[in-house]
Amino acid sequence: MVNFWVPIAHHCWKNSNLAVLQAIISALQRPSIRQLKSMWNQVTNTTQDLFMRYQVMMDPRNNFQICRGLLRTLETEAHVIPSIDILKAWLNGLSADSREAADMLEQLKYWQADKHPFTVNRFLQQLIQEQLDEARQKASDRDALISLEP
Asked: Of 1, 15, 27, 89, which is most buried, counting CB atoms within 10 Å of its CB?
């Protein structure tokens, strides 16, 4: 499961889909998932490294301070459109610092003023579909093997 979702989270990061990235990392951190020792033992080193990196990035402490900092960098470099969850974190931070609040409001005005065309990301859709098909096939194979047991 981790080897399935972390690569999807990585593609979300590459495509600046921070809301889905945060949802995936948050779900993998749930106690019911963390307790699955045999599953975590099968996770590759590369996947573990990515998971740890995204765990730090999506840390909710200080109103997602690390994530908001990364988002500011992405906005500056590539004009990334913030997701609703990130806007919510920004709005929660309005009372923290009046200068930061003014900056946030300016950014909101910027995103409201421009037309931003959203397109379907076929690559990400295909990746998710392939992962789901592979998982279904493995489940089907497992069920077939179980049915053969006495």
From this structure: 89
Q: Burial level of 122, CB count in 10 A (0-12/13-18/19+)?
A: exposed
Task: Evaluate if residue 90 carries a pLDDT over 70.
Answer: no
Residues sharing a CB contact under 8 Å with residue 43, sequence separation 6 or more, in sequence order: 2, 3, 6, 51
CA pair distance 79, 99, nearest whole angstrom: 22
Separate counts of helices (H) and strands (E) for the chain: 9, 0
Instruction: Provide the sign of the torsion angle of the four alpha carbons 114, 119, 121, 125, taken in this order.
Output: positive
For position 49, what pLDDT does the model report?
92
Evaluate whether 67 touches 88 at the Cβ level (below 8 Å).
no
User: What is the pTM assigned to this prediction?
Assistant: 0.51
Contact 95, 101 (CB under 8 A): yes
Q: pLDDT tens across 91-129, in order?
A: 555 555 556 666 666 766 666 665 655 567 788 788 888
